[in-house]
Specification:
The protein is built from 12 helices and 7 strands. By secondary structure, it is mainly alpha-helical. It has a 3-stranded antiparallel sheet, with no helix packed on it. A two-stranded antiparallel sheet has the order 1-2. Strands 6-7 form a two-stranded antiparallel ribbon.
């Protein structure tokens, strides 16, 4: 039985070889393309970069956006000349209500400058030669940034050595006022470089930046460091705390107002009070039948 199977397989191989020898070169090339490994057709995605959009394409999209904005304003009975992006967002959520959790999957209408990524300028001359010597790395902006960053580290190190040689090195030099700021995120850095970088590339950038900050005289490169940090706005800067007031008995009290959707609340907190919480003239235990609402009200009252 095994011998019969061997003979059948052998005859099939002979027939396939004879068929391949009689076919034309086009068929052989087609066979070679099918049998090729995926590695032969793999592309260098890093060198390819983002999709390119011409200036004519962007201009056409802007014209269509302006026409669509005027139509949308007419549908909502608003003035097209004063129809802002905030009005567009409200109109889209009203006309196309969506409960999708992922915000990117919801319908939107934005200016083409926000939708399409920023494009890099021409990278090569008329003769086809690239302008930048790091062009063939596929990430010329990233490696240029790393090269500049490392040169900053070397410059600060040399400055510190000169101060040590002259005996002028200070143990407590001026520090960079980082304050309420953070490093640029990976996405923000990619938008700044107009390039796609990996997580490892971003980690190396942060490590080298931290090394620069750890140097005593890193304030020499303060402008360079702050250029790659994002300022954070503290919520307390937007909150206005009114001074305490006194009632007829001379007791201090403070008032505040809050809004949630269509509801409004006015709160009065008195000094040296009894600790009781009343809402619309009722005890909060009777006003809120649900235990979670009671606990939340008690916690907010304790924080105030």
């Amino acid at each position: 039985m095994a011998a019969n199977c061997v003979r059948v397989v052998g005859s099939l191989l002979v027939k396939s070889v004879n068929f391949a020898s009689t076919t034309n070169p086009v068929t052989l090339q087609f066979c070679r393309q099918i049998c090729g490994t995926p590695a032969l057709h793999r592309k260098n995605l890093a060198a390819a970069g983002p999709d390119k959009f011409t200036a004519e394409f962007i201009q056409k999209q802007i014209e269509e956006f302006e026409i669509g904005k005027r139509h949308l304003a007419s549908m909502m009975e608003e003035d097209p000349e004063n129809f802002t992006q905030e009005d567009i967002d409200k109109s889209i959520s009203y006309l196309f209500p969506s409960g999708l959790f992922e915000k990117k999957a919801r319908p939107l209408m934005k200016h083409p400058d926000e939708i399409f990524p920023k494009q890099r300028a021409m990278q090569w001359g008329p003769d086809g030669r690239p302008f930048h010597f790091l062009f063939y790395t596929g990430k010329q902006s990233y490696y240029s940034l790393m090269h500049e960053l490392y040169s900053k580290v070397l410059n600060v190190d040399k400055h510190q050595d000169r101060l040590r040689a002259k005996g002028l090195f200070s143990a407590e030099p001026k520090q960079i006022p980082l304050g309420t700021s953070r490093w640029l995120t990976k996405e923000e850095l990619e938008a700044l470089l107009v390039e796609t970088i990996s997580s490892q590339d971003y980690d190396r950038f942060i490590q080298l930046m931290e090394r620069l900050l750890s140097m005593p005289y890193s304030s020499l490169e303060e402008q360079f460091v702050l250029r790659h940090r994002q300022q954070l706005e503290a919520q307390s800067m937007h909150q206005v705390v009114l001074p305490l007031q006194k009632d007829d008995r001379g007791v201090d009290f403070s008032t505040a107002e809050g809004k949630r959707k269509t509801s409004k609340a006015s709160v009065v907190v008195r000094d040296c009070g009894s600790g009781c919480i009343s809402i619309n003239g009722q005890d909060y235990l009777n006003y809120f039948p649900v235990l979670q609402d009671r606990l939340r009200t008690a916690v907010i009252g304790a924080q105030r």
